[in-house]
Amino acid sequence: MVNGQLWGFQYSPYVYYNEHCIVMNARHTPMVIDRGVFDKLFSFVEQFPHYFLGSNADLPIVGGSILSHEHFQGGHHTFPMEKAEKEFGFEVPGFADVDCCVVKYPMTVLRLNSQNKDHLCDLAGKILAKWRTYSDPAATVFAETDGEPHNTITPIARMRDGKFQLDLVLRNNITTPEHPLGVYHPHAKLHHIKKENIGLIEVMGLAVLPARLDKELALLKDAILSGRDLRADETLQKHADWAEALQGRYTFTPENTEQILQQEVGAVFMQVLEDAGVYKRTPAGQSAFLRFTASV
Q: pTM for the full model?
């Protein structure tokens, strides 16, 4: 049972991490992120306190998942986002028993901690309601355009140090002519590594990369070591700019090439998360983020 309703539970066939599980509503109902979602997440986590449980966002592009049926993902795993430290705290009037902070992380994350689950969920609902209608044109944040909503949240619930903990990742799915796949989506220069939507698992810091990279990186290693022209290879030409930049920074050898490529793919994924973050980790981005927290 989840929050008094019948839900199903299964372990994922993908096994992206330890005990990767899917928790799904027994009724066929669309994904919606609302105040009630936070109660559902913690209803599960209270029964399985060694698991986290999170939800993809409920809008296209930032959803990263099937939106036609309500479901969550959980498991027994510690992700980079959970390890990320508090950057600065803030207070919300009326919620003195909820510790609120901004997390030092490439994406835009608010973290709430409290022993009072109901107050924590009430505050999360207040933040969500504010974000749904919040616009800041100077920061390229628009709640809606032509009646289409853009703001939503990716929530992740867990128990930590005997308290309820909820991470709220601010998401926005607006598109522009310059970024037709999404302003807060991997930008075109990163598509040779990652073009797909950024869903819950990737939000938390685990890269789910396309299977093609397994073959392409092996071919790229051979091409770099043999000195072949990458731009003449139909499969590898998409990686040419990236590889040439790496060749300007590293001396590649048979012993280190594979390790360097894996390390640099990780660096690209960090940029992917930065692209997906609504408020950038720049002085202007952090000032805009503070405008939002102040509005709450």
A: 0.96
